[in-house]
Amino acid sequence: MVETLSDLDGFDRKILDILAVEGRISVTELARRIGLSKSPTQARLKRLEDQGVIRGYRALYDPIRLGRDHVAFVEVKLSDTRERALAAFNDAVLLVPEIEQCHLIAGAFDYLLKVRTAGMPGYRAVLAEKISTLPHVAHTSTSVAMQAVKEEGVAPIAPGTGS
After folding, report:
1. Who's near 86: CB < 8 A, 6+ residues apart?
2. Which residue of 95, 110, 133, 140 sits 20 to 30 Å from the alpha carbon of 23, by its own alpha carbon?
3. Domains of the chain by residue range
4. Alpha-helix runs per DSSP H in 64-162
5. DSSP bridge pairs for 111
6. Which of 74, 154, 149, 58 is nearest to 117 (CA)?
7. What topology is assigned to 70-144 in CATH?
């Protein structure tokens, strides 16, 4: 079982790096690119999937073309930060589809949320009706993104394979 990055060999790392940017690549092409035959490559893929290293494959869509062009980062301060309160907040956040990301952070605030909506009126509604009503929310502070410079970055796994 893979426990850490050091448990992956060079072939596994190359597989992960390639799939991170080309999720629809054929096993034959993947095998050619990493320098193995198809059968061992397929076995490695299955092992990485079975062990939960590869959690799935998905399509990346352009949210702007779908009318979801407003991105806000919301800092959230909770009134209670005991484990039960954090768990309640975490569970509730999962039910808000407009929240793309939620991170427990250290600093003046407890959480940082990335929220995507179809404009400022949509964001104001999400803030008022969903985020502000999450368990233990005491205070929020919003920063609106003016431009996404880098959103879909993928950190390389294999040394020297990043571009």
Report:
1. 78, 104, 110
2. 95
3. 5-50, 70-144
4. 83-93, 120-126
5. 76, 104
6. 74
7. Alpha-Beta Plaits (3.30.70)
